[in-house]
Target: Bifunctional NAD(P)H-hydrate repair enzyme
Amino acid sequence: MKILSAAQTRQLDHATLQEQGITSVELMERTAQAFTEWFLGQFAAAAAREVLVLCGPGNNGGDGLAVARLLHAAHYAVRVALLPADKQSADWQHNRQRLPAAVPVSTLGPHGALDAPAEGVVIDALFGTGLSRPLAGTAAAVVQQLNQANARVVAIDLPSGLFADATQPANSAVVHARHTVSFGLPKLAFLLPQNAAFVGEWKVLDIGLSPSFIAETATPWQYTDVATMAGALPARPKFSHKGTFGHALLLAGSRGKMGAAVLAAGACLRGGVGLLTAHIPGCGYDIFQVSQPEAMCLTDAQADFISELPELKPYQAVGIGPGLGQAEAGVAVLRQLLEAANKPAEKRPASLHLVIDADALNLLGQHRELLALLPENAVLTPHPKEFERLTGPARDDYHRLDLLRDFAQRHRCLVLLKGAYSCLATPTGELHFNSTGNAGMATGGSGDVLTGLMLALRAHAQLSPFAAARLAVYAHGRAGDLAAAETGQAGLVAGDIVRFIGPALQELARG
Ligand SMILES: NC(=O)C1=CN([C@@H]2O[C@H](COP(=O)(O)OP(=O)(O)OC[C@H]3O[C@@H](n4cnc5c(N)ncnc54)[C@H](O)[C@@H]3O)[C@@H](O)[C@H]2O)[C@@H](O)CC1
Ligand SMILES: [K+]
Model:
């Protein structure tokens, strides 16, 4: 699913009107009906029957006025409070006239008490995608009163004061919504941690916006949802053998961190790899062989950490990083691996795919000269701190996305910035936000599981580097969601994610 900018969203509205031969008032009515239907399902309880709708002067306020009329018709006790303005949009005026006289209307002021209903709901229809500057004056004062009132707030389209696709100055007034209900496509702002307190739970409702305009419009931002991923895993051919799904090599573990190697290996095996060999320090031999009997095991000359790179000929994909530790010897191993992957094709195994994670990323951050050796389409899976070690600090989440995009393009690699909406940057400058996963996965070892699964899918001959990476991220999150349904989020441990990789992949298998 695409994510469009605020400007493109306005164009999408226009294109929809032209294509479908409807007026903007009709589209506003459709929007208000979709919102109201959602609202009735969400707040059917008697306690939620008192509703205050705050309306700005533009079409967001017009939506609010139409919603007030529809909720009144559904027998909710509705009040409307209008933000004073020099002029209002034409569709606003149309819906102001249609508001039944039985709905009380007041005008908001900078000092007056907002009088938010204690047990009810406040609908925020002050500003949407038309916001052109930070809120000031009465609008800012109203938003501050609203936030202090600690009311249940539902924002129409966007929490007022929040830009859809750009950062707002620190300390500017933005509504803290409990729910944000938007239309057509998600907004970039919803996916960034810095906006979590404003947006709350968000939802996108279908209002039949022009599919052809969406298809034709270029954007770097994509949202990987369930529809995007249907059938993403190729079917396993009947006459396949273990060679069909590749032989992966995992370089992982150090004394005290063998669990990372075990988890990554388990995920790789559950990810459907044909064969897995792990190269681990000597101290981990018994641990590893006992816990992962399906994998083969090579031990390093060193007992406590990895100091050697094994012969790479047998492998299609190599994963390095989980539990590696940051011993200097690791730098040499990483350098040799990168050099081997860069050698002319006849001297190395065909298409050696790399997955680089955790301590291997920290080593890269400490030795940035190695970045020049990254082979094309290598996958890097940093969390924000690891990413910062590679690029330096970001001013805010939007700047971090710029750094991410730039890094992936410059090094021609795939970079997954991990988070609530993990973002996969491609060498061509696309940013794909993942939709699966839950807060229970913010637990030790969950990244190691992702690395193992990513490794399995990069070894899979039928998946392109991008398709493999996107599938791994999505399936990892989905496995976490299935696991959390069983264990609860607090009780979820990384091993539970491994157990649900199979079921998650099965959902995504091509029929
Ligand atoms: N255009 C359409 O066809 C549709 C629009 N819809 C709704 O319309 C919204 C967009 O409407 P608009 O483009 O009218 O924009 P808004 O309603 O977001 O606000 C725009 C108005 O506020 C003023 N403004 C901008 N920033 C301000 C600030 N900081 N302080 C004070 N005034 C400020 C603008 O000059 C303009 O008058 C969407 O978010 C959505 O809710 C929906 O009804 C769907 C259809
Ligand atoms: K709003």
Q: What stands out?
A: The chain has two domains: 6-219, 246-503. The chain has 18 helices and 17 strands.
